[in-house]
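FORM 7B - TANDEM STRUCTURE REPORT

SECTION 1: FIRST PROTEIN
SEQUENCE AND TOKENS:
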Amino acid sequence: MRAYVGLGSNLGDRAAHLLLGLSALSRLPQTQLLRISPIYETDPVGPPQPLYLNLVAELETGLAPKALLSEMLRIEKALGRERRERFGPRTLDLDLLLYGDLVLKEGDLEVPHPRLHGRAFVLVPLLDLVPEGRHPLLGQTFRELLAPLDRSGVRPLVL
């Protein structure tokens, strides 16, 4: 199944955390890392904190959605993620954005990601990978969802 995962980091060596996260995702069983978006530096959502680096990864996976989420949480923890406050800073954040066209709400798993449609820092890199993509629940294209959002806090990373 084709899945899209959002990666973000705003603590420590942000780029290294993203690379370690991508490496760990690529080593998951029954999973192949197909493509990644460019990296963006983004303004934080929530309490005052450092700027984020964000990207979206495209995976082909045989893991069920719940198993994939479980592996993603394990990767976050292994790379130093501590869940202290909602929307707080983090070494690595992995969000399951899409799992094919699946629409599912089951315990701590909701796909498409429940805030996908309102986050420019997710939609911009997602559009890099699937420019004609459509939200499986809302029916709108990702481009249509991005149009009314403020994109000023999403800047391509320049090295």
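SECTION 2: SECOND PROTEIN
SEQUENCE AND TOKENS:
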Amino acid sequence: MTSVTAPPPPTPYLPQRGERYRLIAPNTPTAPRIARDFVGAVLRTTAHRGLADDARLCVSEVVSNAHCHTRSVRIRVDVTVNRRQVIVYVTDDEPGPLPKPGTDPHAERGRGLLIVDSLAGRWGTTTHGGGAPHAKTVWFVLVEPGA
């Protein structure tokens, strides 16, 4: 059996008060579906049922990018929920840049980050490891209407 060392948890670069949930999935073609179902279940069982569809779509796009564009062994999905918002972090073991977002909304590829940008209140990326980065996180925030 191969030993795998997990990267450190994401640095708290956004306010993280609330309940926290984590999924660590192997980087396989089923990872986006598993992450989508995980995030949907968390939001349907907390007070964020109205954000579940947007969160499922966004996490699916970000995890798909990690699967398609990295050789990371695993993909970690962290979800923080509180009364006003949901923050989702998707971390892979490669610090390389994100794929460039496409410009054609009707194209078959390259729309994932455009979708995240249109649905999330905020989103961004963070690399981990200082001068020798060893991982990156794509995060997005969804806010309850009226919050």
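SECTION 3: OBSERVATIONS ON SECOND PROTEIN
The chain is about 30% helix and 25% strand.
Confidence is low (pLDDT under 50) at residues 1-15.

SECTION 4: SIGNATURE
Preparer initials: ____
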